[in-house]
């Protein structure tokens, strides 16, 4: 039932349980849904070719022994391109990168291998996130673990301690990057289907094959050193991006009987206004409220949609500097209707 609701969101239908009428301008958003295969081809080229080049550069420098520091410097741009690769993978999950469903699935499986994330399994949890985000009664799949102040106060001491540890930035992003992409994604999500389970197995086999092929040229130690460093830094960045998309001052949450699809998109998702370079590497995902209004819009049309529809421009932006304060928000206070720190 939840997966069906997810598909409704993806298809730009009003989610089940929400009865608010769409605003007059909402139909204009759908005009930006149609993918452009030429734009997609260019995106794949300007993302994967530099990423491969940086991999080759790091391998070459490491093989020369004395150039390890320079090779490690290349980890930063390589991680940035891997973040961008994940955004393309994310569009495939929503069926919005290519016009063809088959092309989205094929590209999604290959890109998913590069970002260590099985396509069908992540699609299951991510579409569930789209169907349930900002809903206090439907937390737990595809989102950041968030509890209310009352739940925290009533929880056993070990739960409070675990939650405090989990919400610490070093644990959530630093260790979370290792856990999510290197360990958690190697196993299927509970409740997912047979196809997703098979997809996890195939992705794992492709990963082993990919790493084995690279290791034949530069050795296992060098291969793992490069891959783990790039994946860890990209993972930290990706987790932060996902965090600030739904964990910020003024965010909207509600119980199921009061949940409103329009408020969930416009107030429950952020407009993360990044500098142009970071916006490019993050595939415009900062326009996240538009993505939740219509998940079928390709990443390269999110900004165009924002610039074309005046009503969307009324959304207050979250700047890079202001976003740093989001890390201190830990609990949802139902009485005050806001995210608050522990104390």
Your description of this structure?
The longest helix has 27 residues, at 37-63. A three-stranded mixed sheet has the order 1-4-5. A two-stranded parallel ribbon has the order 2-3. The chain has one domain (2-335). The chain has 343 residues and is mainly α. It has helices at 2-10, 26-30, 37-63, 68-73, 75-93, 101-114, 119-132, 149-154, 157-167, 169-183, 194-218, 220-246, 261-266, 276-281, 288-293, 302-308, 320-323; strands at residues 147-148, 272-273, 318-319, 331-333, 338-340. It has 17 helices and five strands.
Question: What descriptive keywords fit this protein?
Answer:
single chain; 343 residues; mainly alpha; three-stranded mixed sheet; two-stranded parallel ribbon; 5 strands; 60% helix; disordered N terminus
Strand arrangement within the widest β-sheet reads: 1-4-5
Q: Provide mean pLDDT, rounded.
A: 91
Low-confidence stretches: 1-14
Strand content: under 5%
Number of strands: 5
Brief synopsis:
The protein is mainly α and 343 residues long. It has helices spanning 2-10, 26-30, 37-63, 68-73, 75-93, 101-114, 119-132, 149-154, 157-167, 169-183, 194-218, 220-246, 261-266, 276-281, 288-293, 302-308, 320-323; strands at residues 147-148, 272-273, 318-319, 331-333, 338-340.
Give the helix/strand layout.
Blueprint: H1 2-10, H2 26-30, H3 37-63, H4 68-73, H5 75-93, H6 101-114, H7 119-132, E1 147-148, H8 149-154, H9 157-167, H10 169-183, H11 194-218, H12 220-246, H13 261-266, E2 272-273, H14 276-281, H15 288-293, H16 302-308, E3 318-319, H17 320-323, E4 331-333, E5 338-340
Parallel strand pairs: 1-4, 2-3
Antiparallel strand pairs: 4-5
């Amino acid at each position: 039932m939840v997966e069906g609701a997810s598909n409704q969101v993806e298809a730009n239908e009003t989610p089940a349980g929400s009865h608010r009428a769409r605003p007059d301008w909402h139909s204009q958003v759908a005009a930006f849904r149609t993918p452009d295969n030429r734009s997609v081809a260019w995106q794949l080229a300007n993302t994967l070719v530099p990423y491969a080049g940086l991999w080759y550069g790091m391998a070459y420098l490491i093989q020369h022994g004395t150039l390890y520091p320079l090779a490690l410097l290349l980890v930063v741009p390589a991680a940035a391109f891997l973040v961008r690769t994940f955004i393309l993978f994310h569009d495939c999950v929503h069926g919005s990168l290519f016009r063809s469903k088959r092309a989205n699935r094929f590209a999604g499986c290959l890109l998913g291998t590069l970002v260590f994330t099985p396509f069908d399994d992540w699609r299951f949890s991510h579409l569930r996130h789209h169907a349930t985000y900002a809903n206090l009664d439907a937390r737990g799949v595809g989102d950041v673990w968030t509890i209310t102040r009352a739940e925290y106060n009533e929880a056993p001491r070990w739960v409070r301690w675990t939650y405090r540890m989990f919400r610490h930035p070093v644990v959530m992003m630093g260790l979370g990057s290792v856990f999510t992409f290197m360990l958690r994604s190697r196993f299927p999500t509970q409740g997912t289907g047979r196809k997703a389970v098979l997809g996890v197995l195939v992705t794992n086999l492709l990963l082993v094959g990919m790493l084995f092929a690279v290791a034949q040229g530069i050795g296992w130690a060098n291969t793992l050193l490069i891959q783990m460093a790039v994946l860890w830094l990209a993972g930290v960045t990706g987790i932060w991006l996902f965090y600030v998309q739904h964990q910020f001052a003024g965010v909207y949450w509600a119980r199921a009987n009061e949940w409103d699809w329009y408020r969930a998109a416009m107030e429950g998702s952020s407009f993360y206004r990044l500098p142009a370079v970071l916006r490019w590497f993050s595939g415009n995902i900062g326009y996240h409220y538009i993505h939740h209004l219509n998940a079928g819009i390709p990443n390269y049309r999110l900004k165009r949609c924002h610039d074309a529809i005046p009503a969307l421009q009324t959304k207050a932006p979250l700047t890079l500097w202001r976003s740093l304060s989001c890390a201190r928000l830990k609990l949802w206070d139902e009485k005050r209707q806001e995210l608050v720190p522990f104390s």
